[in-house]
User: Fold these one by one.
Assistant:
Number 1:
Amino acid sequence: METSLIENDILEKRQDEIISGRVVAISISKKKGIPKTNVPSAKLIENHGIEGDIHAGNWHRQISFLAVESIDKMRKAGLPKLRPGAFAENITTEFIDIPHIQIGSKIKIGKEAVLEITQIGKECHTKCAIFVKVGNCVMPTEGIFAKVITGGQIFVDDSITTF
């Protein structure tokens, strides 16, 4: 049985360089500047992003990620009802140290989708409602962005592997 190029890349990494986690939520929106709606699955399109999401397109921030652990920080800071998608992230993860993934790293989601990390954090030009309420927001420092290298269908609870 042959292995794919992606599987070969993963196999060549040392075990301590491979990090695995899971998808907690997938979120999309039709408009910018609003919390995203959670969906059970999504189609990732090569060099485009998530089908039906406003941030999809031919640029370096096709998909955004945030760890549920970062959301938990904000819950403890005074916003206990925050949910995945509230920071307008597309994919909420668990068990992966999202803010410390390096630009150029790859992420495999589920059976076939592969993304490349293109940006860590972002500049907030206007202070969002979360910042105003608790004096902080995690997305500018703990969110990451990626472009889709290999498309595919992804689902909540899919595994995520970084390499």
Number 2:
Amino acid sequence: MSAGTRGTALKCAAKAVAGRFAADVSQQGVCNRGRLKFAGGVLYRGMSEHKATLRWERGDAEFSYQKYPRDHTWSFDGGHTMTATAAPTYLGNPANVDPEEAFVAALASCHMLTFLAIACKQKFVLEKYEDEAVGHMEKNAEGKLAITKVELHPKIAWGGEKEPTAEELDKLHHAAHENCFIANSVKTEVTVK
């Protein structure tokens, strides 16, 4: 995106925020209505792609259940690569992240990012947000193993002159949950404790 298009994008987004209409910027820098939308006061693009590349190799290990390696890499479009594995219960390396932990982290992260956006739009100032999220693996209604519940335990340090009441805080979390892209993508019950 050119500097001119980027500037138009910012102006277009500002108009959309101020006027609460959907807008987008074409490649030529023209403000178009209809592609950016609002959910809970949060501006978002109606459709986007998110990619990850996964790589696994057996190496010299025997391909038997007890012996093949569980470690593999996740690479993301920003250039970040990390080593992932299976959960320790399934012979993974406890030093690396497993899909179950990543799932819990994705839900907690999406909730926090949505919460920050909504709180900011309502003129609350946050200094710190910390969450020790917990996912519960158990059999679901179909009798299959699933992470059926994720509990979020956010601890928030507020700044500025305005701090939400208990009722306002509950509404902020409810709006964050309702508009969290990841929570809207799964059947898992997500609760804020």
Number 3:
Amino acid sequence: MKLIEVVAAAVLAAASVSSLSASAQQVSLSELTKSKLRSSTAKVTTYRGSQALQLVPKGQKDVGYAPGGPLAILNDVRFKDGAIDVDVAGAPAKGAPEDARGFIGVAFRVQSDSRFEIIYLRPTNSHADDQLRRNHTTQYSAEPEWPWDRLRKESPGVYESWADMETGRWTHMRIEVHGTDAALYVNRALNPCLIVHGLKLGDTEGAVGLWMGQDTEGYFKNLSITKK
């Protein structure tokens, strides 16, 4: 057998093993409306020509990002290692304060509605005329012990980065998790824009959630979860 045929066979075998060890679970919009909701209601609507889940904030207003805010935790989904893919669109809501950023993202390995790992976006920062603010476009944190401001103070620049996106437009997020490492890929880029080593909650398992800031108009679609 020629070398090229041996290599091809090996690649196909590896792909076959991979497909057996990891399967993508597509989560429908109707399933998402049945999620456990915190500080929000959820409805299926049309946004930029696509059906999507909209989280609508309710309750006391938070200023900017806080451990509170709208959160939809999927029922009967357990996640440890694998990948989470979702399209999100976030923008400051009408009447939001000037420092609103359109916070939107994904919580994973959720232990409760107040304890989880999270990677989220600040869409308005992406094209800001200020390099330091641009560098704060993506963010990792772990609630409640490791909020963004603690991480920024103790490890400047380590848990946030820049990524190219448009405020209020659909942005694809892919979060890959393995052990205590995670990586964020934006808009199907080949390389991650944010790499996290040493996830603060450790090598745990938990639920998956969709999150946004209280001052955000936010939408989600095409959620799929691949477990390994």
